[in-house]
Design a protein that fits this description.
TIM Barrel, eight-stranded parallel sheet, 8 helices, 8 strands
C-alpha cells in the first residue's frame, strides 16, 4: 500500500450503486474506503450503519474500511462495526465518557483505533493516550455534511499533531478530512498529513482515476 493513503469518502458516492462505486474508486487507485457514520444527534445529519459496512464486505470489498463515528455515545456501536468488517474505527472525544476505555474496546474488537478532532476541539485529549492510537483524524470542516470548504487553520493544527506523533515515537497515521482537493493536497501533505479523505472532489468527477492520479502527482511534489 502507498505511504500516502487516499481514502475516498463514500458519503459523496451514488448510494443506489454503492458496491459498484466502491469497486470503481478502488480500481482507480484509492487505498482505503472512508465510511462516515452520523447519528443526527452528535452531528446534524443521518447516514449509514454497520449493515452497509457488512454489505460492502459481502460484495467483495477487501480494502481497509476506515469507519469515522460521528455519534454519541460510541461504545454501544463499536462491536457491531467490528463484526461488520471495519478495519479502523475513529471517534470524537466528545462522544465518549472514557476515551481510554473506548480505545481499548476498539482494539479488543480487533480493529485499529483513532481519535477525531473537530476544528474547535483542543488537542489535550491526546495527552495520555498516544500509546493507544493507530490514527489521529483532524477535521478541516465542521462535520455533518460533504462538500464543505477546507478551514485553513487546520494546517497549523496538522503541524502540531505531526510534531506530537514524531516526538512520541509511535506509529500513528495522521488523517485529514474536509475540503481536500487536487489544488490543496500538496500543502496539506507538507503540513504533516499522510492519509487524505476526499469525497466530492473524487465522486463528483466523471473520471475517478484522473482525480486520484492528479492527487498523487501533487503529493509527490510535496516530497
Amino acid at each position: 500500500m502507498n505511504p500516502n493513503w487516499i481514502a475516498p469518502s463514500i458519503l459523496s458516492a451514488n448510494f443506489a450503486k454503492l458496491g459498484e462505486e466502491v469497486d470503481k474508486v478502488l480500481a482507480a487507485g484509492a487505498d482505503v474506503v472512508h465510511f462516515d457514520v452520523m447519528d443526527n444527534h452528535f452531528v446534524p445529519n443521518l447516514t449509514i450503519g454497520p449493515l452497509v459496512c457488512e454489505a460492502l464486505r459481502k460484495h467483495g470489498v477487501t480494502a481497509p474500511i476506515d469507519v469515522h463515528l460521528m455519534i454519541e455515545p460510541v461504545d454501544r456501536i463499536v462491536p457491531d462495526f467490528a463484526k461488520a468488517g471495519a478495519s479502523i474505527i475513529t471517534f470524537h472525544p466528545e462522544g465518549s465518557v472514557h476515551i481510554d476505555r473506548t480505545l481499548q474496546l476498539i482494539h479488543d474488537c480487533g480493529c485499529k483505533a483513532g481519535l477525531v478532532f473537530n476544528p474547535g476541539t483542543p488537542l489535550h485529549h491526546l495527552d495520555y493516550v498516544m500509546d493507544k492510537l493507530d490514527m489521529i483524524l483532524l477535521m478541516s470542516v465542521n462535520p455533518g455534511f460533504g462538500g464543505q470548504s477546507f478551514i485553513p487553520s487546520a494546517l497549523d493544527k496538522l503541524r502540531q499533531v505531526r510534531q506530537r506523533i514524531d516526538d512520541s515515537g509511535f506509529d500513528i497515521r495522521l488523517e485529514i478530512d474536509g475540503g481536500v482537493k487536487v489544488d490543496n493536497i500538496r500543502e496539506i501533505k507538507a503540513a504533516g498529513a499522510d492519509t487524505f479523505v476526499a469525497g466530492s472532489a473524487i465522486f463528483n468527477q466523471a473520471d475517478y482515476k484522473k482525480v486520484i492520479d492528479d492527487m498523487r502527482a501533487e503529493l509527490a511534489k510535496a516530497g
